[in-house]
Design brief:
The chain is an all-alpha fold and 88 residues long. It has one domain (5-85). Helices cover 83% and strands 0% of the residues. It is built from four helices and no strands.
Length: 88
């Protein structure tokens, strides 16, 4: 499924703080695990892997949280989490 930037932004803005926190916690954990497993990796590789992990998480959770993750919340959380572990 493909969304425009505006649609993705509207979806993210509609996510409750609780759901946003769960998405971020998952992405943060995945980013740290990726960095620890792949010390030679970079930010872009991290984003790709964390996005895939977030999509798998969304599929396993299902419901509104799963939909929010798969609608783009996971991608945004991946960017933020990977920037934290690959700050350069």
């Amino acid at each position: 499924m493909s969304y425009t930037f505006e649609e993705s932004e509207n979806i993210l803005n509609g996510i409750t703080d609780d759901i946003r926190e769960k998405i971020s916690e998952n992405a943060d954990g995945l980013a740290v695990m990726f960095r620890n497993s792949h010390p030679e990796a970079d930010f872009d590789e991290c984003v790709a892997m964390v996005t895939v992990g977030a999509a798998a998480y969304g599929a396993s959770v299902g419901g509104p949280l799963g939909a929010a993750i798969n609608a783009g919340g996971g991608v945004q959380a991946a960017h933020i989490a990977c920037r934290r572990v690959f700050p350069g």
